[in-house]
Design brief:
The protein is an all-beta fold. The protein has one domain: Sortase, Chain: A (Beta Barrel), CATH 2.40.260. It contains no helices and ten strands. A hairpin with a 4-residue loop joins strand 7 and strand 8. It is globular and about 45 Å long.
Length: about 200
């Protein structure tokens, strides 16, 4: 587990035509899957402790084998071939850019995430709550099977680029923030004070 400093993200050099794709998908996971009901799509993601509040849209795998992360650098992408939020098993993977030539992007705040932080995911039908369990840096760009599994315990996985920027190749490493379900978010209610009975 690696905790990263909460420094602002410097703008990276302009990408070149030879730059590696940011999120290559394992070959065995490229096959298309059925699209889940729209009521289970994540719409918004918040991680208050890291000052992260982002819109989320469903994304798929491109023909070149990489995850089609939104071009809008302020929007994150939920890989719709992973588990929908609220599933009883499997990983729900949401990816986002770290930065652009113009500055920090949607998932730059992930560098401030730490175990115990609360993450909420809003869908059209509910708001789900998670607690960060691990913050891990993995060398290499490819998405590991362990973070894209369709079986096993349910968890939320947030991923962005990190590490040194290699000219012509992009960022060398990936940052994974994993979180376990913590139950649905509920509004806090206060009860009026009890009035003592007379006598």
């Amino acid at each position: 587990v690696v905790a990263l400093a909460a420094a602002s993200v410097p703008a990276r050099p302009a990408p070149t035509a030879e730059a590696a794709p940011p999120f290559p998908v394992p070959p065995q996971r490229i096959a298309a899957h059925a699209t889940p009901a729209s009521g289970r799509w994540p719409l918004r993601l918040t991680l208050a402790e890291a000052d992260l509040d982002a819109a989320v849209v469903p994304v798929a795998v491109r023909t070149d084998g990489q995850l089609d992360v939104p071009e809008d650098a302020k929007t994150a992408g939920w890989w719709k071939d992973t588990a929908p939020p609220g599933s009883r098993q499997g990983s729900t993977l949401i990816a986002g850019h770290l930065d652009t030539r113009h500055g920090a992007a949607v998932f730059a705040p992930l560098t401030r995430a730490k175990p115990g932080d609360r993450v909420t995911v809003a869908t059209p039908n509910s708001t789900l709550s998670y607690r960060v369990t691990t913050v891990t840096v993995r060398r290499g760009a490819a998405l590991p099977d362990e973070y894209t599994a369709t079986s096993g315990p349910p968890r939320l996985v947030l991923v962005t680029c990190t590490g040194p920027y290699l000219h012509g190749r992009g960022y060398r490493d990936r940052l994974y923030v994993a979180a376990a379900p913590a139950g649905p978010s509920k509004p806090v209610t206060t009860r009026p004070p009890r009035t003592p009975a007379n006598g």
